[in-house]
Fold each of these.
Amino acid sequence: MKILVLHGSPKGDISVTMQYIKYLEVCFPEHEWNTVLVGSMIRSLEKEHDRFDAVMEDVVKADMIVWSFPVYHLLVPYQVKRFIELIGERGAAGAFNGKYAMALTTSIHFMDHTARNYIHAVCEDLGMQFGGTFSAEMNDLLKKRGQMAWCGFMKHLIDDVMKKRVLPKAFLPISKPSWNYIPVSPVSKTDPSGLKVSLIADLSSGGNVRGMADRLKACLGIEPIDISRIDIQNGCSGCCHCGFDNCCIYDGTDGFKEAFVKNVMEADVVIFLGTIHDRYLSSAFKKFFDRSFVFNHAPLYWGKQVAWLVSGPLTQIPNLRQIMEIYPGFSRGNLVGIVSDEGGSSQELDALIDSLAARCISLARDKIILPQDFLGFGGMKVFRDSIWGELRMVFPQDYRLYRRLKLFDFPQKKIFNRIVVPLASLMLKIPFIRKAFLKNSKRGMIMSHAAVVKKARSVQEQTAV
Ligand SMILES: Cc1cc2nc3c(=O)[nH]c(=O)nc-3n(C[C@H](O)[C@H](O)[C@H](O)COP(=O)(O)O)c2cc1C
């Protein structure tokens, strides 16, 4: 069987993910393996059509395609996103049609499921039969169990492919009704004075985004920043030099860092505007987000209001919505809202944009930050544990920042958990204490909450008098 690996790490051959592939080559020598380093080759694939065509010829010859990549900012790296865009732009999707595919990701398990969903859906859009994703933690290959799971997964998939088994689909195809947004209603203006508001848009990417950006500009009196015009020469190279001092190897060679600091880090309100390309935004946006890794795992949207304005079929891509939610979600920022142009009515979109702008400003003035939900809360725990643990060696900046922000909130550090909880657990083993406890457990659970309500009521009564 001919297996083609499309390897997406910008580190090329010297990548953690690549070692998983090499391990498979040893386990399954009876199959023909061919690897193309699309991640490190992306610039030449963009420029030299012959090289791109040669890769497509390899795709045509293969029985199975393996997408192998590290998770970068909740998705595939920019380089893979761009490669997928090239397939569409150059009309090469036919090469993939009807082939079997699978994906291998390595990561620290922060939002690796959104990367998995993305590549799975893209494969189905390309007409492929998708056999699953092996979502490895970076170091799973170092453990016997990880090695067995990896080989076992592949053995069964190879069997599926050889026997031409039919695999279930998970995603509906996307329909993209297009229409022209032309603002019709008078603009309802909002005064942002005293706040730093950034409108970060990819104005090169078509759709209704330009019209939406113009409307927002008219509401807030703020000029959008077009990321396609910022000089960002390369995607993140994955070298992690930035872990020691937040300095990137590209600092001084292009305009990314200055633009990011000025427009994101220094802002109170950040509104992103973009067009959906395949099942994410444009690769220009992906490059922008990947390069923000220069600030490592810092909660970049801490205390900020964040909103998204999107042109495209967002309700058909819940995975993308989840990605948009997690940026403020894990950072303890506030997601004001996500507005898309799917309604198909200019009047409705006018009202949605005006209202979004007004809500961004009023929430920022009152510094409202809603509680984190499972994704944000759970995601932060993944970072907390990793940065306190092994990552501390490579990312000392993160470690210092997390200490300063008191993010190392391990439960065992709380005196209550260390002293009261074990004692109480012991006492609850005594039958008559447990009986009394259970009898009063409902009231006991709300005792402190009820006290807060009582105090609030008395304060309110006093102020009323
Ligand atoms: C720019 C960048 C973004 C990353 N984003 C994520 C992420 O969103 N989630 C995650 O779990 N790991 C993330 N990682 C960690 C990598 O996925 C992980 O280190 C991977 O194993 C590297 O594989 P490679 O050596 O094959 O490139 C990121 C690393 C970099 C450099």
Note: Residues 434 and 440 are 10 Å apart (CA to CA).
Amino acid sequence: MIRSWDRSRALYERACHSLTGGVSSPVRTKAPVPLYFTNGQGARLIDVDGNEYIDYQLAWGPNILGYNHPRMVEAMRIQAERPYSYGAQHELEITVAERVQAYVPCAERVAFTSSGSEAVQLVQRLVRAFTKRPMILKFEGHYHGWMDSVLHSHHPQAEETGPRERPNVVTESVGQVPNSIENVIVAPWNDLDILERLLAEHSDTVAAVIMEPVLCNSGCLMPKPGYLQAAKDLAHRHGALLVFDEVITGFRMALGGAQSHYGVIPDCASFGKAVGGGLPLSVVGGRKEIMEQMFTGGVVFGGSYNGNPISLGGANAALEELSRDNGAAIKRANCTGEKLRSGLLQLAQQHKVPLQVTGYGAAMCVHFTSKTDLVDYRDTLADDSERLQRFLYLAMEEGVILVPDGRIYLSTVHDDRDIEETLAAFARVFAKL
Ligand SMILES: Cc1ncc(COP(=O)(O)O)c(C=O)c1O
């Protein structure tokens, strides 16, 4: 049980006088107060008030190996004793590119960037150049970073969404380039009929269909059986490419991401978060002829931090850990998550609370809803979000941190003791809920 959040509160108040909004990303302002951390180990975090938490946020996903993993610390130490930035070539670039190539089926060639948002920008430019077409078809509820060209219809209000067969393209931010919507088509996910109709209508203009292969950013919804392959076939039939945004699923759902889990190989894919084991790194992988347009086809691409040695040292260590024994650590994280899911569902049943836990073991999401068939973003609009906020608050008071949208990330180091303690905490939460 938490003692107090007084020191976090005081630091937040101080921060608000210098750091805009007091935090480095607006999504970090959640109740009761943005927590300030001093340390962490394994699956646990310690805040400035001395409270210990079992953490399922993993820094919003990247810390797949948990906190202060000895291999990561060692890798960073080794790199920090050498020049920590070259802006030029070094062998780790090749080592990590070869690893990605070995694990990720679509990655005939690889490029490094620093954030998931940046990786998606590169992918978009590549697919537009390759197909000589301007439009991107994306899905409602899917998030591909905060840049103007893709920040559409991520979480539109119900009244903004428009007809399901032809959703509105909704900009998400004030200040976003208004005509960015002209290059985007939005479709409901997990619906092949509508996808086919929209592709047929825009047949000669769609460069690519882009999606999160598991809809992690709107409640961890799974693709319907056969959907991913059928979407790929449809895209190709209409001369468009298929892009998987695997920033969350990559190196988490399986070593080779959702594409290897489902056996559906996209033309290109973006990766971030887990690939750097917690360090800022993102990756684009794809078919050779698409990727090599960067050097032979006039596609411009840059970045001062591309191939940063510390990030790549961390990625090399993370990928070594994750790939050992045929991906045993990732399988373990997914199994541990399933134990948590079944315990959580049992508790909800005992307390007669309508609850769904969607997703796969290492990335799940709780929904307070009596709807049992959650297949696209609009289904999640019926979730009881006030109850979720109360649940998250009570869980935090009990020393358990989830992502503010109800997501639960499992690292490779969460163990049975963590799950037992978490379920005991959740039992107390349900009793109060
Ligand atoms: C699927 C997906 N794509 C892209 C991004 C953007 O990544 P970043 O926050 O590293 O820019 C995210 C971030 O959460 C994401 O989940």
Note: The chain has 13 helices and 14 strands.
Amino acid sequence: MMFPWHKKAIEKLDKMIEQKLLPHALLISGVEKIGKFDFTQNLIQKLLCSDSSCDHCEICNALKNDDLLSDLDQSVSIRRSHYPNLIYCRAELNDSGSMSKDIRVDQIRAFCESLGKTADTLQIGVIFYADQMNNNAANSLLKTLEEPRENTLIILLAHHIDRLPTTILSRCQKIHINPTYDDESAQWLESQIDEGTRGDLDSMQLLESAHGVPHKALEDLNGDYFLQYQSWQNLLLEIALSPTKISETEIFTDHELDVLKCLQHLINEGIKIKTLKHDSANLDLNKVIEKASFNHLFNLLDDTNRAISLSQTTVNIKLLLDNVMVVWSHITNLKKYPAITSFQEH
Ligand SMILES: [Zn+2]
């Protein structure tokens, strides 16, 4: 499937292919849900099928049989496609079923070894997401990038290229997929919404609220994210008003980062209404903010922001949230602001 907001990136790639300037390593970047994976699959099909992505030759069928959503969610570090010269490397699922945060060096080694030293036909290795490689993994990949193999293309997908070492960046050709606010994408979005829901919906507005990421817009619309968000917010306020509610936080599980962001929003909102001496429409928030001191709110906002940025590291996010929750549960009657110990080491 070709998405209208991929057009520019595709043109750039097509030019490389046409002029036979396809590099040994390609970095495809863009924010989450912008469609990097679909983009990559289209590219792979274009490169491997001899009949312009015919959709029915042996290779196209092999690619079609790569059920990336289910197969690749298996706990495997390296996986071969149904087309033998195509391999994927991604973070593993851990025992609790969530995705591990980093790609380890042994995975990258296995990945590089799985790519043959020589290949008669084009071999392709895909790493997603390359910005999840830890330092050792990145160094290990660098060695392979420094000695390009013939007939080999390595494709790195990344959400945040600033998390990749410059040594890797400098060895890749870069293709970036931008967020989109054009009419064609808004029309695509509209076409994906069923008529019942469509109503008076302004698809451009929806696209803007999702920061120009059409699939994110659809997800916001269809999913129960807003309901979930509401229930986190309610529980957070209940916890601040009666600390024993802290035992009911199982609804936060696997949503720790979103819950931290929800708390961040609550505290920001609280500081605003306290500063302006306004009341919020949210009565529970008024009650909490009335009793909490400015100092403690600012301190907790700092700590929440810190927890959010630490969540990008290997720190246990559940522990971060638990620590923040303990302080939050006492925010209305804190004497002295406590130092959160799990932050100190960082
Ligand atoms: Zn084909």
Note: The beta strands are 25-29, 78-80, 86-90, 123-128, 152-158, 173-176.
Amino acid sequence: MLSKLLEKEINDQINYEFWSAQLYLSMSAHFADLGLPGFAHWMYIQYQEETTHAVKFFNYVIERGGKVQVQPIQEVSTVWDSILSVFKETMEHEQKVTTRINHLADTAVAEKDHATQSMLRWFIDEQVEEEANVKAIVDTLKLVKDNGYGIYALDKELATRVFIDNTQTGINA
Ligand SMILES: [Fe+2]
Ligand SMILES: [Fe+2]
């Protein structure tokens, strides 16, 4: 059985993962509007991934005999002033998620909940991947700046990303 504190904190994280999904869906729409289908596609996969994260926590709470409280999703941004600013916001967002996952792990340790610590391992590893993937794109954007061909080439590259539900495979990538 989950402690009341962990039940509450994981419920908050379910909402936060859905909020992340909304944020990335909004970024995807923004890129589609700019005529950058590869960037839009990459963000759409982010949206799909965040949804699987929310569902992984959702199933875990139920499995441990807790109650999921589905909460309203806060509003997300819809406008950005550059491609780089979208990815800088993405990087800051993922760093914030990492801090939240670490806090959850601290609570699980304090509550002596070994099963939750084990479940959170997957998310801890996932965040390493998330931050590294976004950093690589930020670095490339800094390199190409406003070069049209550079943006075009990156758009083509991001279009090749394939969605894999890592919560099912158990492998973080
Ligand atoms: Fe996530
Ligand atoms: Fe994420």
Note: The pocket of fe (ii) ion (ligand 2) is lined by residues 20, 50, 94, 97, 130 (CB under 6 Å).
